């Protein structure tokens, strides 16, 4: 009864001992007061016992009762009986218990006990209420209660603060003026009609809030608003992880410690062919290809257990039974929250990478055009074959094969036809060898065959012959018929070399020898070939230097009009100032240039030098007609795609009039590709260049072509001129050429005119122009200018 506040009011100075002891026992707080105390000092009591003994104080007792009756229980103890009390006191009906003498102490005790219990309960409820109010107030959520008409009925301090509401506005403000929920009170009540609660989330200044509404009896609606930013962040993260998981291009599989698959993503389904439903709940054994043994899985598990991860290539099986390689990495993950272990497997299907690897390997070792082994593989194969021949004391042969005149096919018909040609040749060669022979393409039109297990030279020569025969059959590409031949050089192990380098070099030298001897054939290596080849390589190297260091000079040989005796022009003939060997004539080096790529640079250099010298001729040589300068153009250079453009640009650069330039092209070379030549002649002629067919008579030109060529001059080859005086046949040939030139309206010139007898007979045959030692050897520019001056003086 410690909550009961008991007040005892007595007219006596002291509360009589009798009840004091009693009441002390009953209550913790006893306030004894004299009844005459001032009204204002009255305290709030739960129970008041009034000792009412004299009639004179009855108004005071009335006041006391009146003041307290509403919240305290009133007990009146008096010697008067109930009727007397009722008449004495106005407010006697407010007395809860009236006791008169003799006191029934038990009754009083019971009353006080009962009443104290009630008070206790009430006070407890009050205390609880105030604590609850505080709890709600301090709750981090924003809590408010609205009446059913939407008026704010209660709000905790967070709610007030967040909505900037003053406490005085409670019971005044309406939900619609307060809320930031983007929802009207009408909608809210409508929603709550259908369900017990309603939730809405919103984002405000980068934070997330969740409002939760529910009805509290029919009359109130509670609004609980929580800051869910953290939760939301986590949710978003989770969502993103889920998206990442699902949309990752790599297959993902999560399984638990027991090996049960818990989750797989779309890529997993795509790669394995299993749907999520089929995979989840199964174990990864579902994918087992049977390709790996127990030891493989054992080491995988060991790594997982001790390192927490495993990574490597593994062959698995798809649902359709197809076995494929994947790059798999598994990591162990532990969830601290659930104290559980998971295995996260990430894998990619690497069958296409494997395929690429295979292709890469193939391309590294093969020639993509023909599919034959390339140089890399050839060299390693040759070493292997030599090793095994050495062990078995065997011979082996290397056939170095070059497709004759392939370059011409390529230049004339283009690379597509050229490629098709190489493929046809590859097929024919491959079909002609035995299965244990090895064929490869070294590049361009060069093939090499390693023939192992040969005992006699005859065997390998027979193979060479068979290959030649196979190619000799006409090759038809794109409706065009080609007649091709091979040049084959052969080296035999161990006779022609004991290591791969020597064998290759010597087979190459033998092949080169075949080329030199007019191609289309095969030849075994001989030591003299090497010297030739060495010479070739050395000379080509020296020529490169010669080009860089400008060791070339043009000499000039005059061209004479046999009827007027005047100098008409000159032919430019190249000389090489070799740093050691001195002055070299074209015979010793020109073929090395013309048969290599050097010719393009060299050819332009000659033209440049000649164009530059033309200015000197024009300035210092006195002629009636413009001086004509003849330049020798090599076949390769002439057939080069942009030759015409390059030459005309160069002429412009040197301000050269093309009419003063005569281009000499070998008749034999032109006739190899008359169609292209005709076009080039036409173009050059249009630009103003003069054209001459050099060494005419050696090339069996067909008359039909000659007729169409825009050629200005035929140069009778010196071999016919040399024996003109003694050989009737040559004379007949020369005569025919001269006559033909007249028919085709071309000029005709004899070269190699060494004597006046030659000159006389040529003149009698109708030859217009001559060139030869009779007049002058080819000489340097300055000497030539002087010679011209002398010649003019003596002959005019
Ligand atoms: P080619 O065009 O037939 O030149 C004529 C050759 O005959 C020259 O030899 C010349 O010196 C020689 N010759 C001239 N008159 C007589 C003579 O009365 N008797 C004899 N026996 N020979 C005579 P060269 O200068 O040694 O040139 C040889 C070949 O080299 C030339 O034959 C030509 O095909 C080539 N050549 C010379 N210079 C060049 C050049 O600048 N470019 C190219 N591509 N080839 C050139
Ligand atoms: Ca010439
Ligand atoms: Ca000539």
Mean pLDDT: 87
Helix content: 40-55%
Shape: elongated
**Tally of DSSP β-strands:** 32
- Ions and ligands: ligand C2E, calcium ion
Short description:
It is built from 29 helices and 32 strands. With 796 residues, it is of the alpha/beta class.
Throw out a few tags for this protein.
single chain, 796 residues, alpha/beta, 8-stranded mixed β-barrel, 5-stranded parallel beta sheet, 29 helices, 44% helix, 26% strand, binds ligand C2E, binds calcium ion
Description:
The chain has 796 residues and is α/β, with parallel strands linked by helices. It has 29 helices and 32 strands. The strands form six sheets. Strands 23-24-26-27-28-29-30-31 form an eight-stranded mixed beta barrel, surrounded by four helices. The longest helix has 34 residues, at 105-138. It is elongated. The structure holds ligand C2E and calcium ion (2 copies). One calcium ion (CA) binds at residues 694-695, 715, 751.
Secondary structure layout plus pairing:
Blueprint: E1 5-10, H1 17-26, E2 29-34, E3 47-51, H2 58-68, E4 73-78, H3 82-88, E5 97-100, H4 105-138, E6 142-147, E7 152-155, H5 157-162, H6 175-178, H7 185-194, E8 197-204, E9 207-216, E10 220-227, H8 229-247, E11 251-256, E12 261-264, H9 266-272, H10 276-279, H11 294-307, E13 309-317, E14 323-335, E15 340-349, H12 351-365, H13 375-392, E16 395-403, H14 406-413, H15 415-432, E17 438-443, E18 446-454, H16 457-472, E19 475-477, E20 480-482, E21 486-493, H17 500-516, E22 521-524, H18 527-548, E23 552-561, E24 567-578, E25 582-584, H19 590-594, H20 598-620, E26 628-632, H21 635-639, H22 643-653, E27 661-666, H23 667-670, H24 674-687, E28 690-696, H25 703-708, E29 713-716, H26 718-722, H27 728-743, E30 747-751, H28 756-765, E31 769-771, E32 779-780, H29 781-795
Parallel strand pairs: 1-2, 1-3, 3-4, 4-5, 21-22, 24-26, 26-27, 27-28, 28-29, 29-30, 30-31
Antiparallel strand pairs: 6-7, 6-10, 8-9, 9-10, 11-12, 11-15, 13-14, 14-15, 16-18, 16-21, 17-18, 19-20, 23-24, 23-31, 23-32, 24-25
Helix pairs in contact: 14-15, 15-16, 17-18, 18-20, 20-22
Bound molecules: ligand C2E and calcium ion (2 copies).
One calcium ion is lined by residues 571, 632, 664, 694.
């Amino acid at each position: 009864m410690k909550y009961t506040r008991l007040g005892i009011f007595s007219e006596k100075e002291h509360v009589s001992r009798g009840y004091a002891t009693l009441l002390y026992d009953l209550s913790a707080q006893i306030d004894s007061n004299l009844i005459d105390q001032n009204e204002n000092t009255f305290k709030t009591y739960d129970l008041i016992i009034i000792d009412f003994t004299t009639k004179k104080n009855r108004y005071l007792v009335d006041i006391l009762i009146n003041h307290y009756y509403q919240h305290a229980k009133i007990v009146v103890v008096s010697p008067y009986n109930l009727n007397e009390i009722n008449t004495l006191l106005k407010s006697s009906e407010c007395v809860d218990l009236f006791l008169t003498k003799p006191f029934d102490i038990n009754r009083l005790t019971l009353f006080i006990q009962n009443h104290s219990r009630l008070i206790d309960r009430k006070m407890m409820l009050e205390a609880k209420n105030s604590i609850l109010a505080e709890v709600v107030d301090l709750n981090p959520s924003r809590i408010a209660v609205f009446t059913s008409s939407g008026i704010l009925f209660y709000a905790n301090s967070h709610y007030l603060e967040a909505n900037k509401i003053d406490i005085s506005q409670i019971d005044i403000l309406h939900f619609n003026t307060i809320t930031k929920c983007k929802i009207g009170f009408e909608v809210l009540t409508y929603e709550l009609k259908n369900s017990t609660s309603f939730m809405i989330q919103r984002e405000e200044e980068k934070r997330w809030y969740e409002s939760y509404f529910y009805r509290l009896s029919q009359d109130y609606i509670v609004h609980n608003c929580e800051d869910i930013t953290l939760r939301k962040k986590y949710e978003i993260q989770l969502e993103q992880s889920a998206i990442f998981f699902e949309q990752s291009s790599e297959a993902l599989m999560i399984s638990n410690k027991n090996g049960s698959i818990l989750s797989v993503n779309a890529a997993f389904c795509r790669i394995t062919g299993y749907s999520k439903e089929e995979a989840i709940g199964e174990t990864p054994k579902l994918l087992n290809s049977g390709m790996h043994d127990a030891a493989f899985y054992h080491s995988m598990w060991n790594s997982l257990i001790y390192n927490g991860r495993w990574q490597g290539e593994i062959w698995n099986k798809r649902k359709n039974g197809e076995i494929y390689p994947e790059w798999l990495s598994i990591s162990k993950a532990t969830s601290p929250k659930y104290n559980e272990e998971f295995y996260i497997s990430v894998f990619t299907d690497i069958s296409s990478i494997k395929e690429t690897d295979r292709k890469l390997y193939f391309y590294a070792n093969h020639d993509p055009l023909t599919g034959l082994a390339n140089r890399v593989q050839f060299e390693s194969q040759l070493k292997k074959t030599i090793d095994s021949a050495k062990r078995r004391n065997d011979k082996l042969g290397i056939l170095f094969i070059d497709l004759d005149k392939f370059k011409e096919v390529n230049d004339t018909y283009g690379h597509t036809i050229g490629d098709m040609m190489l493929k046809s040749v590859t097929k024919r060669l491959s079909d002609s060898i035995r299965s244990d022979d090895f064929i490869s393409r070294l590049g361009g039109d060069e093939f090499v065959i390693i023939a192992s297990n040969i005992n006699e030279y005859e065997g390998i020569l027979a193979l060479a012959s068979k290959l030649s025969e196979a190619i000799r059959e006409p090759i038809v590409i794109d409706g065009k018929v080609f007649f091709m031949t091979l040049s084959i050089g052969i080296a035999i192990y161990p006779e022609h070399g004991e290591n791969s380098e020597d064998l290759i070099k010597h087979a190459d030298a033998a092949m080169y020898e075949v080329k030199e001897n007019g191609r289309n054939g095969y030849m075994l290596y001989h030591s003299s070939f090497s010297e030739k080849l060495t010479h070739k390589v050395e000379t080509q190297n020296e020529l490169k230097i010669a080009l860089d260091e400008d060791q070339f000079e043009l000499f000039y040989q005059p061209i004479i009009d046999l009827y007027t005796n005047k100098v008409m022009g000159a032919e430019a003939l190249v000389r090489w100032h070799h740093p050691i060997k001195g002055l070299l004539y074209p015979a010793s080096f020109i073929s090395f240039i013309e048969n290599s790529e050097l010719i393009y640079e060299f050819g332009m250099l000659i033209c440049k030098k000649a164009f530059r010298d033309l200015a000197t001729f024009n300035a210092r040589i006195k002629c009636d007609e413009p001086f004509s300068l003849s330049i020798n153009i090599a076949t390769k250079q002439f057939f080069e795609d942009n030759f015409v453009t390059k030459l005309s640009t160069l002429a412009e650069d040197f301000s050269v009039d093309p009419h003063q330039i005569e281009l000499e092209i070998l008749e034999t070379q032109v006739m190899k590709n008359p169609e292209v030549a005709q076009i080039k002649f036409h173009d050059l002629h249009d630009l103003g260049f003069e054209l001459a067919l050099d060494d005419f008579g050696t090339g069996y030109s067909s008359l039909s072509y000659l007729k169409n060529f825009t050629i200005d001059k035929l140069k009778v080859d010196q071999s016919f001129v040399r024996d003109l005086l003694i050989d009737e046949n040559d004379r007949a040939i020369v005569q025919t050429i001269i006559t033909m030139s007249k028919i085709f309206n071309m000029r005709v010139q004899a070269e190699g005119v060494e004597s006046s007898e030659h000159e006389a007979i040529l003149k009698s045959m109708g030859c217009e122009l001559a060139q030869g030692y009779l007049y002058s050897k080819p000489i340097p520019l300055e000497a030539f200018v002087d010679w011209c001056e002398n010649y003019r003086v003596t002959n005019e």
